[in-house]
Amino acid sequence: MTDRPDRNGLSADELAAELRVFLAEHHPGRTPPATVPTAAAERLAFQRTWQATLFDHGWAAPGWPRRWGGMGLPLRLQAVHHREMALARTPVAPSRIGYIVGPSLLAYGTEAQLERFLRPLIRTDELWCQGFSEPDAGSDLASLRTRAVLDGDVYRVTGRKVWTSGAQFADWMLCLARTGPAGSGAAGITALALDMHAPGVNARPLRDMTGGAHFAEVELDDVRVPVAYRVGDENAGWAVARATLGHERSTSLASAGMRYRRVTGDLLELAQRRGRTDDPYDRDALARAVTDARLLEWSGQRVLGRVLEGGEPGPLASVIRLQHALFEQGLHELATDLLGPHAALAASEAHLAAGGKQDGAWLRGFLRTRASTIGAGTAEIQRTTIADKVLGLREVGR
Ligand SMILES: Cc1cc2nc3c(=O)[nH]c(=O)nc-3n(C[C@H](O)[C@H](O)[C@H](O)COP(=O)(O)OP(=O)(O)OC[C@H]3O[C@@H](n4cnc5c(N)ncnc54)[C@H](O)[C@@H]3O)c2cc1C
């Protein structure tokens, strides 16, 4: 895969120019809401086609090693990549979980696993889900009970996962299972790459208040996982989980700041159309949204920089996750406030003239982001981590 174009030596302007040429040829201008299918399966197919196009032209995974199909760009060029994509309103990557699992595979996977999994992961030929949470193990993840028993050259896995994003569409699950004795906590957990098409896997979609089914409940009944698909050592899965959660809370959000800069632009337009830019309270809320989007972008750069220097995101990830969750909730609250009753209306001329998005995207975003302070660890857990590990308040209290 080293025959892929190497854009490492380009200047920021040269990279932006090359990317714009590619986008002009392959991306039909901004992706208007009306052209993005709203049905989940069709939307996914649409996003996967785009991701494959990016990969085939050497424009996917800007920060990942070139050896596995990424671009291996330095941070300053990654930022250019994210900015141009956001400005062109390209489809959102369908593989957020893949981009969370990927760094953990890179850190803990065997050479054979990297060879097997990374290319189809980046191209989204195969989708991944993250099987951590269970009905009685969310914030207290170390109490999980799904069991993996070694039997020759396979682990036999039995248990139940819940709130597993995209499990109904996934080909692989990064699954945490207990290999140590009951009650062994974090020290008895192993990470496995589990084939979602294997006998004994049953994923049932769970409908949420947006009307869609973002996640699923997954039953694992004596599922056989080859030992060769164990990620890291037996009983050493906690380190894999921590690395994965670190990326979920931070680097996977790296491009979000850029995209949200664009979305706040939409919000300002909406405020203008609704005649809501003179009131001091509205102006204050709008200024805050613009400022927070910029802060989010800088935080993303900061954590990416740390990872590129060879580190893991660490507790800083909790700062970014919390910042991101509160920002996107506030943004959509403001948008629905500006729209008033129009937020809830489907396409109509009056509705569009009032600044509604054709497919009710602001309202859907409002409903979807209620979960932002729960997923990837609740806001309470993030605040505790920040207090403890970033600010050192536990030490201060002693
Ligand atoms: C949209 C969405 C997508 C998700 N996707 C995935 C996924 O793909 N894979 C996956 O494995 N999981 C996923 N999850 C699950 C998510 O990680 C858990 O919901 C989360 O960790 C909280 O766990 P819980 O639901 O069991 O709540 P609990 O841990 O039972 O918490 C309930 C409440 O108690 C509070 N609480 C608990 N412990 C403490 C404490 N020590 N101090 C202070 N307050 C505390 C919590 O903050 C919360 O308010 C997803 C969740 C959502 C909402």
Question: Major beta sheet, specifics?
Answer: 4 strands, mixed
Mean pLDDT: 87
Helix content: 40-55%
Counted beta strands = 8
User: What bound compounds does this protein have?
Assistant: flavin-adenine dinucleotide
Radius of gyration: 22 Å
Distance between the termini: 54 Å
Shape: globular
Q: Report the sheet-strand fraction.
A: 5-15%
Report low-confidence residues grouped into runs of 5 or more: none
Structure in words:
- This protein has 398 residues and is α+β, with helices and mostly antiparallel strands.
- It is built from 13 helices and eight strands.
- The chain has a four-stranded mixed β-sheet. A four-stranded antiparallel β-sheet has the order 2-3-7-6, with no helix packed on it.
- Helix 4 crosses helix 6.
- The longest helix is centred in the C-terminal third of the chain and has 29 residues.
- The termini are far apart.
- The relative contact order is 0.09.
- The model has no long low-confidence stretch (mean pLDDT 87).
Topology:
Layout: H1 12-26, H2 40-56, H3 75-87, H4 96-108, H5 111-123, E1 128-131, E2 147-151, E3 154-165, E4 172-178, E5 189-195, E6 201-206, E7 215-226, E8 230-231, H6 237-249, H7 256-273, H8 280-308, H9 316-339, H10 349-353, H11 361-368, H12 379-390, H13 393-397
Parallel strand pairs: 1-4
Antiparallel strand pairs: 2-3, 3-7, 4-5, 5-8, 6-7
Helix pairs in contact: 1-3, 3-7, 4-5, 4-6, 6-9, 7-8, 7-9, 8-9, 9-11, 9-12
The structure holds flavin-adenine dinucleotide.
